[in-house]
Amino acid sequence: MNPDIPYLLVVEDEPTQRQILTEYLSRQNLRVAAVPDGRLMREAIAAEMPQLLLLDVGLPGEDGFALARWLRERHPSLGIIMVTSASDSVDRIVGLETGADDYVTKPYDPRELLARIKSVLRRTQAMQAQREAPLVNANAVRPVPLGRCSFDRSRRLLLTPDGLQEHLTATEFDLLDLFCQHPNRPLTREWLLETTSQRDYDGSDRSIDLRITRLRRKIELDADKPQTLRTVRGVGYMLVLDKA
After folding, report:
1. Residue 214: per-residue pLDDT
2. pLDDT for residue 153 is more than 60
């Protein structure tokens, strides 16, 4: 077993699709296991924690949404990509609201799926490495005060006033970090989506809006009246920081 090869768990109930995915991804320098349902998913995770989980929405018994919520609560750093139906945008919206890092829609190009997997793996591995690395100088990069929280960019952590961690998915971190690089400037939805997810912008894609909503719940004193992550009508969003 090579620890440098990422371990990916596929949760897909359709046997042919499960076999095709396993064979294709195994040829891409990934170590792959596959299971058909949530019960076997839990057993597989208990035996060995994967770096990333490819999770189909339409599973028997517990659906992918319920499993994603369960996974996020217990394994915050796990990368999750939801596989949804191309005909139902509600699936994609709910999937992102549960804390998935990304989603793909059926039918999908295997090369696009592989690009999404590599992108999420890069972000989750970077987050894990920085969280585990000792701080050389705790004052080198001061945490950024954001609403009720502070954002430690050097360790990729969002901290509450009592020092507890507010979990960020890899994509949420990328989005918040991008805002911190461009404070007090309106940023368009199109640019935010293309920069953080490496996908072409689709005017119907609400993933940025959903992630902004999730971030507001974590950092704002009142998420319904945001003062830190503000909406700029007709443009997108702006992170408001004290210039002092």
Report:
1. 86
2. yes
Buried b / exposed e along 177-210 (16+ C-beta atoms within 10 A): eebeeeeeeebebeebbeebbebeeeeebbbbbb
Q: What pLDDT, on a 0 to 100 scale, did the predictor assign at position 122? A: 84
Number of other residues whose CB lies within 10 A of the CB of residue 168: 23
Token pair recorded at residue 121: 């793996």
User: Pick the residue with more confidence: 97 or 72?
Assistant: 72
Residue 127: phi and psi, rounded to 5, are -60, -45
**pTM more than 0.85:** no
Q: What DSSP assignment string belongs to the chain?
A: --TTSPEEEEE---HHHHHHHHHHHHTTT-EEEEESSHHHHHHHHHH---SEEEEESS-SSS-HHHHHHHHHHH-TT-EEEEEEETT-HHHHHHHHHTT-SEEEEES--HHHHHHHHHHHHHHHHHHHHHHHSPPS-TTSSPPEEETTEEEETTTTEEE-TTSPEEP--HHHHHHHHHHHHSTTS-EEHHHHHHHHH-S---TT--HHHHHHHHHHHHH-SSTTS-SSEEEETTTEEEE-----
* CB of 123 closer than 8 Å to CB of 130: no
